[in-house]
Amino acid sequence: MSPRERGFTYLTVLFLVALMGLGLSLAGEVWHSALMREREVQLLYAGNQYRRAIERYYVSGPNQFPRSLEDLLKDPRKPGTERYLRKLYADPLTGKSEWGLVKGPDGGIMGVFSPSEDKPIKTAGFPFVNRDFEGAGKYSDWKFVYNPASQQVAVPQQLPPGGQTAPPSQQAPAPGPQPMPGMGMQQPAPGPR
Fold it and tell me: Are 134 and 123 spatial neighbours (Cβ–Cβ below 8 Å)?
């Protein structure tokens, strides 16, 4: 090979390496964005589960907030075991079990938030219960708080991220007359005309 051909081959290989590096960096960005979106979904789920559990704790007793998150696993105010959460969720953004706590007027916990200072990807289009998150500049601004004075509707039950709905046999029946097993819908007998 002549020196000119070797130089052309060398430049072609450098160009291909640069192109592959650019492709890999774009793939890394897409993967990172997808990962952060999934963590946001998990944060919204876990935070709303805590808010819902705090609400149930508050209304099931003498209107007081839990003193610790562990009180949501077993209510110390009751002689039996009453649970408002199945487990304590870890913060999906930090990977740690520590949450920022919003203290209530009685010193109890009225909400949780992630201590992450990262900028959220989702900034709009939140459901009504999370309407305060619109335009938040960091995840730590997403405060999952149960405030009995301003709560107008109960916090809705959510499916876990990647969760499935109940099979039709386990779902609540639709309102109205239901057919008997093995029979069609019963029609009312015509009355006298």
Answer: yes
pLDDT attached to residue 45: 96
State in Å, rounded, how far the first CA of the chain is from the last one.
Answer: 106
DSSP, collapsed to helix, strand or coil, labels residue 141 as helix
- Say how many CA atoms lie within 13 Å of 3 toward its Cβ: 0
Q: pTM for this one?
A: 0.68
CB 57 within 8 A of CB 72: yes
Please list the rounded mean pLDDT of every run of 10 residues in the chain (193 residues).
78 90 88 91 96 94 92 91 93 93 94 95 91 93 91 56 49 43 46 50
15 phi-psi bin (left φ>0, alpha ψ -120 to 50, beta other):
alpha
Every domain of the chain and the residues it spans: 3-159
Say how far apart CA 131 and CA 39 lie, in whole Å.
19
